[in-house]
Prior knowledge:
CATH topology of the largest domain: Maf protein
Radius of gyration: 22 Å
Low-confidence stretches: none
Distance between the termini: 56 Å
Largest sheet: 5 strands, mixed
Number of helices: 5
Number of strands: 13
Structural class: alpha/beta
Amino acid sequence: xxxxxLLTQHDKARAIGPALVGAGFAVVTVDGFDTDTFGxxxxxxxxxxxxxxxxxxxxxKACEIxxxxxxxxxxxxxxxxxxxxxxxxxRELLVWWDAQEERAVPALVQGGATNYAQCTVSNWQEAKAFxxxxxxxxxxxxxxxxxxxxxxKNIADLQDLKTQVKEGLAIGSVWLETDMxxxxxxxxxxxIALCAQRxxxxxxxxxxxxxxxxxxxxxAVAGALCSQCGLPTLAMRAKxxxxxxxxxxxxxxxxxxxxxxxxxxxxx
Length: 268
């Protein structure tokens, strides 16, 4: 098995390691480095650059610290869904880094399988209702915001939560949010595992052109035909799969036609 170094302080190796075995990699955890310096969910440290920038920086740092050729970086992002902006949405990104060739292979999964939530409470009953909704205590809760006297990321159980919340309520309303650190959030861990499987699949897929592993960068190709008027629409017709090294690409068909409701001419 080829070692691949993972920079984490949140126990992500148990979600990532099993999937990468299929690609011939054994995950080696790199500890002793504070990954929150790349950005923290509660905002003590702002993330520099994009989600991809942060994950790539972690993978490179893992190689630098461990001396291994290959490194892994993981970065999650949470917010409203990209469709109507109402439901919570999670994006998990893993980056595999080859320090010798200085190239990255990213893998992304996203969806609504998350308990990401926040609220402001004015009494213990509201806090307890929020806790039950977000699956506390199997999933962590953070009380307060950085800089507040009652700010805490380490709430053990319902009684501990009650004590912390009541201390905050003595001053005013209290901010609560789900703890999105992987080791405190089993739902997030499950999505990281899915992302690891996606990465494993990519690392087992060589480019038909240059034979490098990691073939699978995808982009949408518009042009599905309207089933009524027969003209091309903006709807996706195929996905283009491209190599990040030699730029070889191929297309995989998604659909040939779409309903008139998706046509800019029949349904302007």
